Amino acid sequence: MANPFGQLVDDRKLDTMSDYVGKAKTQEDRAREAMRLINEHDKNGKARRYVDGLKTEYGNGATTLCMVYNATGETLYYNTSRDWYGFIGRTPYPFEIGNGQWASFLHVKKTSAASGSEAALVFRGKNASGQNRDFCLAWSSPWSGLYKNKAYCDVGSTGSFNRNWNTVYSNLQKRGGYTHSTDDDGVNIKVSTAAGFSPLFVAEIRTPFAPKMK
User: Which domain of life does the UniProt lineage start with (predicted)?
Assistant: First the structure.
């Protein structure tokens, strides 16, 4: 099975839960349940095994194994991407990720080049106020062990990252680390990476939510 992984956490799914039957549902409700069900039916494991399989097919060489989870309460849509070093592997970036779904993909180094995997990916979705926003996820997995792997994320207005790739790259290098997060404009994003030449990069994009009322 290819991307995405997991059942949609939409209003129909909420209607199967006693706390929501016969009640109006909100984006916040869908986001809350998406986070509660982040590992439902091993969907996270399926996404991980999928990208592990892509890495096995690719073979040796610097890569970044990427996993993205959507808990915004709305659908995420692919908007744009930028490669500084390397390129997307055999399977393309996911066109859309439904609420409560994981997506995974492999970013690889340029063939026969002494370079690593370094790129940014932008999804378009909605913030907590229902306004369109762009969500930037970026990673740096250098070929040389002299440099530390980095993860970075940000929230911006629509089209803002595509006009400012130099700023994104600078922020990745200066502010990125093994973990990074942003909580701004009604969106929370957390990203992480690890040491090594083929680290796992994990991103969670969320709409903030209050505890469920009893």
Answer: Eukaryota
